[in-house]
Amino acid sequence: MEIFTLAFMQRAVIVALFISVVTPLIGNIIVLRRLSTIGDALSHAGLAGVTIGLCLSFSPVVSAIIFSVLSALTIEYIRRSFPNYSEMATAIVLSFAVGVAAVFSGFVKSTAGFNSFLFGSIVAISNFELVTVIVLSIAVIIIMTLLYRELFYISFDEEGAYLSGVPVRSVNLVFTVLTAIVVSIAARTVGSLVISSLMIIPVACSMLISKSFLHNTVLSVIFALFFTTAGLFVTAFYDLKPGGTIVLIGIAVLVVILIVRKQR
Amino acid sequence: MAILEVKDLSFSYPDKSILHRISFKINRGDFLCVVGTNGTGKSTLLRLILNRLQPTEGSIKLFGTDSSQFKDFGKIAYVSQKATAFNKDFPATVEEIASLGLYSRKGLFKKYTKEDRKKVHEALERVGLAEFANKKIGNLSGGQQQRVFIAKALVSSPDIIFLDEPTVGIDIKAVDSICCLLGELNAGGITIVMVTHDISSVIYHSNKVLILSEDGSSELISSQEFTGRSLMNLQHHSHKEV
Fold first, then answer.
1. In a 3-state reduction of DSSP, which class is residue B36?
2. What's the predicted TM-score (pTM) here?
3. What is the residue range of B236's domain?
4. Count of domains forming chain B
5. Testing the interface with B: which of A32, A149, A170 to mutate, by most B Cβ within 10 A?
6. How far apart are the C-alpha atoms of A144 and A146, rounded to whole Å?
7. Does some domain include residue A257?
């Protein structure tokens, strides 16, 4: 338990707790709107932002946020240009982000720093990143709470929402930007390659149990909190990569729920 | 006063002309059935009225306002053809779905009160589903789900409800019960506009029928006249067979 008295570990725990709340909040809407690939595209965009930041000696988290938000806006633009093939937008942005990350990674001096963004790191979180995560997470929680009904309505029936006066386009735009922010701030702890899993797995677990939208939202946050805290404990004691450990714990819980459900 | 006025409305898809200079008026308290064979533009007409499509020519006025400028969403409600085609695993209760209907009256960022919750329960009672309020919507039958969507339409106390083929994919018993429910709502003062391909179960509740033809034209007649014509057609066919 001594390890949790260390400053870097305390920072990691605080960041992990905030991320555990915001990722399933976003993931819930992404899963129910069948947009799971957006998480993947934006996490790769975040990674592209990280490589650019590392190359230019600029804060990687801030550059990841900027690059992800721009990518999110591009996805929205392409989706509107191809309304019947909207899934193409995520594939285009993902390919572009991978291309940028691959090209710029050749110029990154610190390979360890780059790897920490790929699979997450609990020792690398700076005080500036801690404050960034806390402020942005609180902003995301407030906006998601304010737009709870609108996002629920759009997730269930987008046309019905439009005809009831929901500003569908604006809400979609705000939501995509929030997704980009969450993906970027979670990259440091969980890692860009597994962040989309943290958005999806807690929601998948809660969907197997819950009956209501509210229940599903709350339960997915509880699952995510459990996965990340358990993941950090295991990581601290066995010196593993936090992102992978958190996701594997999530998958294990999902398998257990599926088995228990089948036996009933 | 006409609450819906369609004047010289035409609509074409790039490869096909659907509606050609159709005009009709609906007054408060009317129950209009829109009928026609497949491809005559029944659902297209509804989408034009609800400003989801733009007409090639002509105008549509809802409560005296051009439909493209109409923003008083609380006055109208819509039950879509795809209402029951949602993902059955969607985690939402009957009460949560019915509550969505409050949005058109409340708007952005407004808190829902006890009074609003009461309205939702009253609407569910009206469609006979109050005891299912906490059930997951995906676990209900097709007929029950359609009733939930009618309850969702009712919670905003609309003046007019538009329904697009609300009885598709529902067993005959449930169809009768939904048509009776719509008749009751209409008797209570709500104007109904319903697109349907199966008019037999709803004709006795309606008072007007809009017939859309394959050549893009339309004809508005009373339900009695429609029934009379149907009987004459039936007799004509049976004489031919004899």
1. coil
2. 0.86
3. 2-241
4. 1
5. A149
6. 5
7. no
